[in-house]
Write a structure and sequence with these properties.
Layout (H helix, E strand, L loop, with lengths): L1 H7 L12 H9 L6 E6 H11 L5 E7 L6 H7 L3 E5 L5 H16 L2 E4 L12 H15 L4 H14 L4 H13 L5 H7 L1 H13 L2 H6 L1 H17 L6 E10 H8 L5 E4 L3 E4 L2 H10 L6 E10 L8 E3 L12 E4 L4 E11 L2 E8 L5 H14 L4 H11 L3 H13 L6 H17 L3 H18 L4 H16 L3 H17 L5 H18 L2 H18 L5 H17 L2 H18 L5 H16 L3 H18 L5 H16 L3 H18 L5 H16 L3 H18 L5 H16 L3 H18 L5 H16 L3 H18 L5 H16 L3 H18 L5 H16 L3 H18 L5 H16 L3 H18 L5 H16 L3 H19 L4 H16 L1
Parallel strand pairs: 1-2, 2-3, 8-12
Antiparallel strand pairs: 4-6, 5-8, 6-11, 7-10, 9-10, 11-12
Helix pairs in contact: 2-3, 5-10, 6-16, 7-8, 16-17, 17-18, 18-19, 18-20, 19-20, 20-21, 21-22, 22-23, 23-24, 24-25, 24-26, 25-26, 26-27, 26-28, 27-28, 28-29, 28-30, 29-30, 30-31, 30-32, 31-32, 32-33, 33-34, 34-35, 34-36, 35-36, 36-37, 37-38, 38-39, 39-40, 40-41, 41-42, 42-43, 43-44
């Protein structure tokens, strides 16, 4: 058996042996994203097959059995049992063939719809990736050292696998004695490693195998050139496709499909049909038989028959295409359940869509050497460390006086460091790029791009004034470039507008976005997606100003343009749906907000990778909305989804993680779990201190959150210390009319209000109001909040008439912008009611308390304690108006709610008993009054002990009532 294990290692380095069925089953259950082949003896097969057969990761089973007469039992009862062997050596060729079949099924594809020529900026990154790699690898020159580096890599990889090390030795000694195709078809480690690296975009392995990729491609081209095809050829390919890929393929009739690997096909339809049919054993796969038509008269794309060249000779009548060969998708027919036949046509040399795609990708690549383009590709794939090595090496080999080329490389290194979050290092390299460009020409177009890049860094650092000055420098360069396009001017105006928006200068932001729109209207067709982007940007500004109607109008204009010009699953409509949802969120129309977020999410889940930041944004928005309606458990579920995406896609100190920790902290804050909330806010602060400048506005936001926690915990002096830190940052970073400054002054005012320093509180509220009047629309909800705070202060000072004037303004704003059933409307009616109560206007107070109840009972569950509180206030008004019967019914209603929602012993219930007793007394029902007064005494005694003042007061009242009996 030891020799057999050594031989098996030829086919896989991942070989595991078990003596116990349970251990084997447990191991299999913990395998993810890989396929497993199981070899088991007949003595253990009956035990282990029931444990593992239905696991999706188990591909196939091979049984060793000396008595093959029982073969039919296993193959009949267990569909994954492929063969029964009486000699393990017979398993080896079958295992090699099925390993390859499994690899074939896992091969990834790119599918591009028939209309994608209008949507080139949304081409799947993997399509561009394989296209670029193919072009780069074909151009790269290699020497003997390239093969040696690959061999050294294999020696290290297979250090513990003697059989594979022997194979590597053979590869090293005799590589030139055989053709690349011979090696590709003979050695599983070559075939599997290459196609796995192409599938998973493992650039490290691909770079080590680049020499082999080039050699293999060259041989296919040579064989194709030597074979003169004059008639159409039909070849077949059978494989499994994951359900999601297959559904996308079904919807793309007439579009393009590319395979991200060297594509093996066969002229034997039966063999390919077998491969497709075998895939159906996995419930996650659809069996697909591709029928591929090649017309050599209109297509020069290379392919090669492997007859007498492949290690397996003519066993499968194999035809091999080079990596990233592209086909046109034709008719589709279902042969059997989960088995389809799909016709493909090799693209011709004049295919317009393919030509458009290729031209677009080449424009994206730009010029330069293959290493420069490879560096660009690494940046696109977020492989920043690899890109850094490439551009550093390019700089080392470039003449110091070749200023333009050096400037390009410095700029690329700046982009790399900016994406890594190393802002100061990014600025250092951008500065070097500027100096080199200026040596080449004072109006070099590269200066425009580099100044724009510098501006983006400063914008991310929260240094908005500096960012603006850099964008303005970029614009000055742009004005001097003779061939600069109007569309570039529009981009510059958008960039400048984005900084003004962050500064809170909405009028300037609006002006620049409108200029961008005017430019685009002049130079673009009426339904161009860039016009939609301009309307979307305008919507963002109007939303920030609180002009929700105009914001929605602009977003809908954007959607209409996108509907006419983009596919339904494009990311831009999803972004606009998100923005519309955010507006409805701000208006308090949470159900409509959620419906738009859901639309965005449905598009993004179909069109984006599972860890794309846009998915995180939408899940965050939904979490915030559920938090706003008090559904905290659902809110936390969404924030955990965001966190999962970010932890997978981002470094542990990325500022976006801090935002999510702030969101989670807010939920616990809302639940009054202040210590847990504080822990999350502290996590956010720790990240921001590492990743952001000390004056970044996001730091100020976290300081305010922490201040809010301390305020809720009644530690107002500590709250003020955090609010002061936030204010200091915002005064440095933001414009003097930014709404965030107003929010900070308002927070400070609330803290002073709780401390009883009403004069200082009022001073801060007035500062907030002054800012908001300058920067926000007259109906912005933040204005209502400040008026409300001012009303509370005036009420605390006993100035109820002034308080009512403030509350009236709050009510006017909220009735204009909020739906009729909104908690903020309930709260303002409550405040108005309290003010009228203080002024002894009981009937007016009653009306407002009743309005509060009407709204709250539609929002909260019938047993929510907040309903008991408002019932108490309504009861008190009836009591003061001497309508004791109605007062009693409301006090009893309040008691019923509390007894259902509170513990059986609670101070609020004791107060209820006392109030009911007082009301029965007014109705001269003394027996009932004594009964409830006794309950009040008993409960307060249990709560506070016999000597508590409240117990004594209740006892005195009870004694007085008994005297009336």
């Amino acid at each position: 058996m030891d020799d057999s294990i050594i031989e098996l290692r030829r086919y896989s380095d991942l070989l595991f042996t078990f003596n116990e069925p349970d251990s084997c089953a447990e191991f299999l259950k913990n395998i993810h994203d890989q396929k497993v082949f199981l070899i088991v003896t007949n003595t253990l097969a009956d035990i282990i097959l029931p444990l593992v057969h239905n696991l999706s990761q188990l591909d196939s089973v091979y049984i060793l059995c000396k008595n093959k007469t029982i073969e039919n039992n296993w193959t009949r009862d267990w569909r994954k049992v492929r063969e029964i062997f009486d000699d393990i050596s017979f398993i080896f060729p079958q295992l090699q063939r099925n390993t390859r079949l499994c690899e074939e099924s896992l091969m990834s594809v790119n599918i591009i719809g028939e209309t994608s020529t209008i949507n080139l900026n949304e081409i799947e990154s993997s399509f561009m990736y394989t296209q670029l790699l193919k072009e780069i690898f074909i151009e790269m020159k290699h020497d003997e050292m390239a093969k040696q580096l690959f061999v050294d890599f294999l020696y290290n990889l297979y250090a513990d696998n003697r059989i594979l090390l022997n194979t590597v030795d053979e590869f090293k000694r005799t590589y030139e004695h055989h053709s690349p195709i011979w090696w590709y078809t003979k050695e599983t480690f070559i075939y599997s490693m290459l196609n796995r690296a192409l599938r998973t975009q493992d650039i490290d392995v691909l770079m080590k195998m680049a020499f082999f990729v080039r050699d293999l491609h060259k041989q296919i081209v040579q064989l194709h050139f030597e074979t003169h095809h004059t008639t159409k050829i039909i070849v077949y390919r059978g494989q499994g496709m994951f359900n999601a890929d297959f559904e996308k393929l079904k919807k793309s009739h007439g579009g393009l499909i590319s395979f991200n690997n060297f594509l093996s096909t066969s002229t034997d339809e039966l063999v390919s049909h077998f491969f497709a049919d075998c895939s159906r054993s996995d419930p996650n796969l659809i069996g697909v038989l591709f029928e591929i038509e090649i017309d050599p008269m209109i297509s020069s794309i290379p392919f090669a028959s492997l007859d007498h060249i492949s290690y397996y000779s003519t066993a499968e009548q194999e035809v091999l295409f080079s990596m990233h060969t592209i086909f046109r998708i034709g008719d589709m027919n279902e042969i059997e359940n989960r088995l389809w036949k799909i016709k493909l046509t090799l693209t011709n040399d004049n295919d317009e869509q393919l030509k458009c795609l290729t031209d677009y990708i080449r424009r994206e690549i730009g010029g330069g050497s293959h290493y420069h383009r490879l560096g660009w590709l690494m940046i696109k794939l977020n492989e920043y460390d690899k890109a850094e090595k490439i551009y550093t090496k390019l700089l080392e080999t470039t003449a110091i006086d070749d200023w333009e080329i050096c400037a390009i490389f410095y700029n690329q290194l700046g982009i790399i460091y900016a994406n890594k979050g190393e802002d100061n290092k990014a600025l250092e390299f951008y500065d070097k790029a500027i100096k080199n460009y200026q040596k080449a020409s004072s109006t070099h177009s590269g200066l425009y791009a580099t100044y724009s890049n510098i501006a983006l860094v400063y914008k991310c650092m929260g240094k908005y004034e500096t960012a603006l000055s850099m964008y303005k420098k970029a614009r000055e360069i742009e004005e001097k470039i003779p061939l600069s396009k109007d569309s570039d001017w529009a981009v510059t105006h958008n960039n400048i507008a984005s900084v003004y928006r962050l500064m809170g200068d909405f009028s300037n932001a609006l002006s620049h976005h409108q200029t961008a729109l005017e430019i685009r209207r002049k130079v673009l067709p009426p339904n161009h997606p860039s016009l939609g982007l301009s309307f979307n940007n305008l919507g963002v500004i109007y939303h920030s100003k609180g002009d929700y109607t105009t914001a929605l109008a602009n977003y809908r204009e954007a959607l209409e343009i996108y509907r006419k010009s983009l596919p339904t699953v494009h990311s831009r409509p999803a972004e606009t749906y998100n923005n519309i949802g955010f507006v409805y969120d701000s208006m308090g129309d949470y159900s409509t907000a959620l419906s738009y977020y859901q639309k965005a999410l449905e598009i993004q889940e179909k069109s984006l990778p599972l860890i794309h930041p846009d998915l995180a944004t939408t899940n965050r928005n939904m979490g915030c909305t559920y938090a706003a309606i008090g559904d905290y458990s659902t809110a936390l579920e969404y924030f955990q989804k965001v966190l999962s995406i970010q932890k997978t896609a981002l470094p542990s100190t990325h500022a976006d993680l801090a935002t999510t920790y702030n969101n989670i902290g807010f939920v616990y804050d809302s639940k009054n779990d202040y210590q847990i909330a504080l822990e999350y806010y502290q996590k956010a602060l720790d990240i921001q201190r590492k990743s952001l400048p000390s004056t970044h506005p996001d730091l100020a936001m976290t300081y305010k959150n922490i201040g809010g926690i301390h305020s809720s915990m009644k530690d107002y002096s500590k709250a003020l210390s955090y609010y002061d830190k936030a204010l200091e940052i915002e005064q440095i970073t933001l414009s003097s009319s930014h709404s965030r400054l107003a929010a900070t002054y308002s927070n400070i005012g609330v803290a002073y209000q709780h401390m009883g320093d009403y004069k200082t509180a009022m001073s801060n509220f007035l500062k907030a109001l002054e800012i908001q009047r300058k920067s926000l629309s007259p109906t912005h909800p933040d204005l209502a909040n400040v008026y409300n705070n001012m009303g509370v202060v005036q009420g605390s000072l006993g100035n109820y008439s002034i308080a009512l004037l403030c509350y009236k303004k709050v009510l006017e704003i909220r009735e204009k912008i909020l739906p009729a059933v909104h908690l903020d409307l309930a709260l303002i009616h409550l405040n108005i009611g309290v003010a009228h109560y203080r002024m002894k206007n009981y009937s007016t107070a009653l009306l407002h308390f009743q309005k509060t109840f009407e709204i709250q009972e539609k929002i909260f569950s019938p047993t929510h304690s907040i309903l008991a509180d408002i019932c108490d206030k309504i009861a008190m008004m009836y009591y003061l108006m001497e309508n004791y019967s109605t007062a009693l019914s409301h006090y009893q209603k309040s008691l019923n709610i509390r007894q259902k929602s509170f513990q059986s012993i609670d101070p609020e219930i004791a107060v209820n008993f006392y109030n009911i007793a007082k009301t029965f007394e007014r109705l001269n029902q003394y027996q009932e009054a004594v009964e409830y007064a006794q309950k009040a005494v008993d409960m307060t005694r249990l709560l506070f002990g016999c000597d508590h003042s409240e117990v004594k007061e209740n006892q005195e009242y009870l004694d007085k009532l008994r005297q009336k009996l």
